[in-house]
Write a structure and sequence with these properties.
Elements lengths: L8 E5 L2 E9 L11 E7 L5 E6 L7 E5 L13 E5 L12 H12 L6 E2 L8
Antiparallel strand pairs: 1-2, 2-3, 3-4, 4-5, 5-6, 6-7
Length: 123
């Protein structure tokens, strides 16, 4: 099944077609709730990236899952979370370049990674 592309931005990186959009995250008021997130998915649905848009004081993190990122999974989990750099621009905007930088960071094997749990605490 192919990812939905209606009202979503599309571009190619690392020989894969990626589709991205900003969406409201689920469960308002829940313990793991953040208001908005950048959602990136490969067109063939083999990889998913979720980048929560947190307030400036919080450490940013990224959620990765799918076959595209299985080399980062430990075999017991379907997803993995890592602290990451902030990809928003200084004014808080997410641009196509921000998303491209996010994808490149997620695909890079040379970037240092700190695993975190859903509370954004190092594991």
């Amino acid at each position: 099944m192919v990812a939905e592309t209606k009202r979503r931005r599309k571009f190619i990186a690392d020989e894969h077609v990626y589709v991205w959009h900003i969406q409201e995250s689920g469960d308002p008021g829940g313990p793991l709730y953040w208001s908005y997130q950048v959602r990136v998915i490969t067109e063939d649905r083999s990889g998913n990236i979720i980048y929560p848009l947190l307030s400036k004081g919080e450490s940013p993190f990224v959620v990765l899952y799918g076959k595209r990122f299985e080399h980062l999974l430990d075999g017991t989990r379907q997803s993995v979370l890592f602290r990451c750099p902030r990809f928003e621009r200084e004014n808080g905007a997410i641009t196509p370049q921000s998303v491209k930088d996010l994808i490149q960071w997620c695909l890079s094997d040379s970037e240092p990674r700190i695993r975190v749990n859903w509370k954004n605490q190092p594991i």
